[in-house]
Sequence to fold (460 residues):
Amino acid sequence: MTVSGGAFAVWFRDVQRWDPASFYEIVWHWPSQVMAPIGSVLKSRKEKVDRSVYDFDQLQPITLHFDGSIDLRDVEPGREYRMDLFFARPGDIVVAKIDLKNGAVGIVPDWPNVVVTGHFAIYEADALLLAPEYFIRLIQTNFFKAYLWRNKVGAEGRKEVKLDFFESIAIPLPSLQIQRAIVDRWERAAKEELAAIQGASDLEAEMIEHILEEAGIVVHPLRKKPNAFAIINRDLHRWGVEFNRWAWSLDGLLSSTKYPTVPLSAVTSINPTVDHELTDDDLVTFVPMSAVSDTTGQIESSELRPLREVKSGYTRFAESDVIWAKITPCMQNGKCAVARNLKNGVGYGSTEFHVVRIREDVNLLPDYVWLLLRLERVRYAAQRYFTGSAGQQRVPAEFLEELHVPLPPVDVQNEILTRVQIGYAEVARLRTVADQIRAAANAEIEAMILGTLQVRANEF
Fold:
């Protein structure tokens, strides 16, 4: 039966599950002869890795994301997976069993010796009936992901969509030409969106560096030494060839012929304490990492919590402090913000923030510091100082402490910030264009896949 909304009645013989949401089916607009179960066009692959033939360092585990993208998984040197592993060949469709409800279905790239654990299912698509790229686009539609979510089962916290149910779902299988036309439309929109996003990012970087340069502040390129180089022992700040291959230092990354340049630690306090007289019942602002936009560099979704809930185990900061993400990839993405409008003047947040506070006796604007710390080259330079294992690398406080910054008068700082704010209007426009391209393409593709919008082969 098909339920589209509102109140409904069900014959007992039709009850498969007790929750009402599972009765809401997808209303397809395709002829019945085009519909077929997923399992009819996917063949299960179960190719176990012979660990007597392959060393673990010859194998490549992967990470499968909710959006269907796949990345190489970083594994710490010397660590091995002890559980059984299975080959996933290029072009295969892989499904993360526990995250199928979130759309974690992807296509294996053309990489050698890709392996997954038994927590994944691997399928080979019927090349005569199904284009894998079309299948991923279908999985990623909002209506299909919502359908999967409605049909998860199991204990709370471990709910999943069972593979037999997944394979039984009927989907439209138009001709391969039409499937590819839908994929082509999505790929064209993705390129347009990427161009708009890249244009906004390039404009932002060039605009800020140009404004700083006109104000007498230069952001220097990050140059490397030749492949073969020598270094004097007194110049060694850290062991490691890659760290010492760079031909720049933190006292010369930002420079000025007009204004003095000082270590950031001389004009700010890095990770200072916060004194207050609040009680456990008093409300404070809580800022998780997700609350800081890596696009705008603003706190966009803070929370109010009683002090008792956050006073231990979180980073503490105060009004007008600059919070700067120290962990990958948040640091590279630009998660940095000025903390403002904090409840009772106090904030708590992720332990992955460094806190920068302007000293009271210094004429320095927090927004000026924020601007410098969000510079693309400064964020790139910070990667040189990473510590920790892959996937959990952090920038130590010494990077901020030793970073030298030009110190122009406050009126010059304000002038720089005003001009940057004007430039951000065009950056925001380009990002809005990218959002509109994505929204329009998603709506169009969903209509094509549902069958409410006719598609002609070779249309795109």
Summary: The longest strand covers residues 120-125. The mean pLDDT is 89. DSSP finds twelve helices and 22 strands in the chain.
